[in-house]
Amino acid sequence: MFSKRSFKIISVAILALIAIVVAGFFLPEQLMIPVRGATPADWNHNSFWFKPWGKSGVHRGIDIFAPEGRDVISACSGIVVYTNTIENGGKVVSVLGSKWRVHYYAHLKQISTVAGRFVSRGEKIGTVGTTGNAVGKPAHLHYAIITQIPYPWLYRSERFGIDRMSYLNPHELLMKGR
Ligand SMILES: [Zn+2]
């Protein structure tokens, strides 16, 4: 069994883990519009959860329209947890920010960050493009916010309603305090 000493180390580790999780909830979060120079006029305010929406059935984010090549900037400080080229999203970047929320940026022309890097709010992470299923469409940034700890009160008894617990409305969060 565990010795007294290893038990103490485990207890400290668990307390530290709890402290990190709790701190994640209380870090202040003021989001920036993640395209340089963009304003709320550059996205449809009702496009979050718009359906039907292509192959994915329902839209789970907002599309911020901007000229191709415009800087995509991180909406918040955080850690880049994922960059890749995928079928629908094209070139994508995911940043883990405060409150255990992942900020997802898709259809990038170029990715200019790497997984594991800390980014500050407003830092460039790529450029606006038309990659993935945005090929042939006007250039835009698909921006989604996914909470890693689902919110059961957002559940809806409809198709894709379970996803409502994880996907937050970027429009509402970007408009906060405006
Ligand atoms: Zn989109």
From TrEMBL:
Keywords: Membrane, Transmembrane, Transmembrane helix
Gene3D superfamilies xref list: Glucose Permease (Domain IIA) (2.70.70.10)
Domain M23ase beta-sheet core: 58-146
A Pfam family assignment: Peptidase_M23
CDD domains: M23_peptidase
Transmembrane segments: 7-27
InterPro entries xrefs: Cell_wall_metabolism_enzyme, Dup_hybrid_motif, M23ase_b-sheet_dom
Lineage: superkingdom: Bacteria
This protein's name: M23 family metallopeptidase
UniProt source species: Geomonas propionica
